[in-house]
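Quick review question:
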């Protein structure tokens, strides 16, 4: 199946495999065997398998500070609360102690994300049932009432919980693309916006080259302006940072990944590449090629759309090659890889 942009759903998953780096190969195998009707079903299956695997390894437990009223002393006494209990003639102690528990933020996020998918009408009934079958193992774990307020950047990983890293990436992707739509708390997944997909598309290409073509030293490069003279206001120049930069011997290729509903702009019946895209890539190239050499090239790489005419350009401007190509995401994933490999091969040659 394809999404509303004409992209094979399994290809979105493969792109996420690279974007998140540490999705495992066994997950890729089951995605290849299934024809998902909706992307929600794909995420439900991915989460189910990830949670099942984590349960076999054991849920992460950590010591958390706990407050409780007990008949006997445990940890240290909360004096003020204990006095209040004594005034009420309750023969109890207010205690503060550390308890090893599964009720921590990582497991709370897992349970909450599964709960969100279980209450999503777009998810297949069988897949909702599979997630529900895991819930008894999370009896002691609380749900997060406001998933949208999870502070993802504050999650910390260590040796004992490294296996949660990819699960948290998947949970974040699901939760940040869900909205509450009904009074009874049911959820529905938002359609992927061009902004969401452009982020995945860009990160996928970068991580693909980092994985498959390390010899090209892939990275996102900060480019300094080729300033000849400063009178005032140099600090007001905007920063320039490439999406993907590849190096081979003395040649550099700057790739700017673009994901639009319409890849070309139209003016009086004439279709052309978006002006801003050309200006941007040309600025990157010319400022990086400060010695006015032709060994820096630029490539605008667009995700292919259903339009009849698509970007296809190879020109030399002021001594530097500027190109535009499309990458068809609605094909076998190996063909996508072959297209990216060809870009690398051309650079190496």
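Suggested answer, residue by residue:
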């Amino acid at each position: 199946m394809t999404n509303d942009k004409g992209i094979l759903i399994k290809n979105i998953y493969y792109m996420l495999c690279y974007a998140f780096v540490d999705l495992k190969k066994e997950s890729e195998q089951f995605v290849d065997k299934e024809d998902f009707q909706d992307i929600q079903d794909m995420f439900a299956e991915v989460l189910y398998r990830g949670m099942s695997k984590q349960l076999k390894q054991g849920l992460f437990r950590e010591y958390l500070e706990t407050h409780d009223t007990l008949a006997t002393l445990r940890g240290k006494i909360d004096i003020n609360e204990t006095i209040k209990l004594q005034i009420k003639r309750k023969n109890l102690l207010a205690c503060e102690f550390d308890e090893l528990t599964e009720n921590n933020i990582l497991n709370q996020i897992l349970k909450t994300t599964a709960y969100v998918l279980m209450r999503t009408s777009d998810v297949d009934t069988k897949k909702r049932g599979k997630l529900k079958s895991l819930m008894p193992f999370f009896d002691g774990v609380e749900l997060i009432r406001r998933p949208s307020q999870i502070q993802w950047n504050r999650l910390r990983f260590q040796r004992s919980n490294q296996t949660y890293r990819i699960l948290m990436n998947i949970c974040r992707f699901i939760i940040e693309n869900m909205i509450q739509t009904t009074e009874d708390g049911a959820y529905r997944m938002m359609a992927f916006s061009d902004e969401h997909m452009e982020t995945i598309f860009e990160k996928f290409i970068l991580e693909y080259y980092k994985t498959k073509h390390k010899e090209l030293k892939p990275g996102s490069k900060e480019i300094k302006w080729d300033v000849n003279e400063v009178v005032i206001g140099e600090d007001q120049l905007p920063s320039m940072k490439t999406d993907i930069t590849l190096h081979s011997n003395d040649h550099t290729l700057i790739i700017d990944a673009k994901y639009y509903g319409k890849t070309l702009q139209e003016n009086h019946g004439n279709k052309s590449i978006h002006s801003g895209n050309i200006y941007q890539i040309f600025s990157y190239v010319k400022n990086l090629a400060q010695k006015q050499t032709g060994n820096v090239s630029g490539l605008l790489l667009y995700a292919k759309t259903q339009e009849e005419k698509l970007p296809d350009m190879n020109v030399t401007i002021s001594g530097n090659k500027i190109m535009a190509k499309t990458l068809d995401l609605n094909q076998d994933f190996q063909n996508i890889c072959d297209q990216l490999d060809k870009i690398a091969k051309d650079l190496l040659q």
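Why it works: The first helix runs from residue 9 to 19. The longest strand covers residues 62-70.
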